[in-house]
Amino acid sequence: MLSDHADEVVVLERDDVALSGDFGGGQGPRPGVPQGTQMHALLDAGRRRMDGWFPGLSTELVADGAALADTGTDVHSYLDGSLKVLVGGVEMISATRPFLEAHLRRRVLALHNLRLVNGRVRGLAFTADRVSGVRYEGADPAREDVLTADLVVDATGRASRIGAWLREAGWPEPETRRMHVDLGYATALFRRPEGPHGPTLAQSLATLPDGRLRLGTLGRVEGDRWIVLVAGYADDRPGPTTEEFLRRCREDPAEPFRRLAEDGEPIGQPVTYRHPDNRRRDFHLLDRLPAGLLTIGDTLASFNPIYGQGMSSATMHASCLAAYLESGPSLRDPAWPYFRQTRTVVDDAWQTSALNDLRMPHVTGARPRGFSIATRLSDLIVQASVTDPVIHRRFLEVMHMLSPAKTLMRPTTLTRAAWTVRKQHARRP
Ligand SMILES: Cc1cc2nc3c(=O)[nH]c(=O)nc-3n(C[C@H](O)[C@H](O)[C@H](O)COP(=O)(O)OP(=O)(O)OC[C@H]3O[C@@H](n4cnc5c(N)ncnc54)[C@H](O)[C@@H]3O)c2cc1C
Question: Is the beta carbon of 101 within 6 A of some atom in ligand 1?
Answer without folding.
Answer: no
